[in-house]
């Protein structure tokens, strides 16, 4: 479990590094965030990728709501996913992975 948590944490940190790199990239070379976003939204695969990303955020938010005990706590964890992206998902997974694994290993499925 610790190896999996470490792997998720490392991937989350790598993604954070990429986000910071992109945020501080020189805008005179590639344009501002909004300039680049406008280009992406003109490309068919850019639109597909953005929709895929948002649907993935919604799927992950659903998992958060199904596993957290409180709706308030779930909302506080799920809402930032749509702004901070999978970096925030990695934080939640690193913290909640042991509890999530315990929940998923419960024999609650009917055997017959």
Concise synopsis of the structure shown:
By secondary structure, this protein is an all-alpha fold.
Mean pLDDT comes to 90
Count of discrete structural domains: 1
Structural class: mainly alpha
Rg, Å, rounded: 18 Å
Fraction in helix:
over 70%
Assess the beta-strand content as a share of residues. under 5%
Q: Strand count, sense and closure of the main sheet?
A: none
Uncertain runs are: none
Helix count? Answer: 7
Distance, first to last CA? 31 Å
**What's the overall geometry?**
elongated
Please trace the helix and strand order, writing H or E for each element.
HHHHHHH
The assembly state of the depicted protein chains is: single chain
DSSP strand count:
0
How would the blueprint of this fold be written?
Layout: H1 2-23, H2 27-30, H3 33-40, H4 44-67, H5 71-78, H6 81-84, H7 86-104
Helix pairs in contact: 1-7, 4-5
Describe the 3D structure.
By secondary structure, the protein is mostly helical. The chain has one domain. 79% of the residues lie in helices and 0% in strands. The chain is built from seven helices and no strands. The protein has helices at 2-23, 27-30, 33-40, 44-67, 71-78, 81-84, 86-104. The protein is elongated and about 55 Å long. The mean pLDDT is 90.
List keywords for this structure.
single chain; 112 residues; elongated; mainly alpha
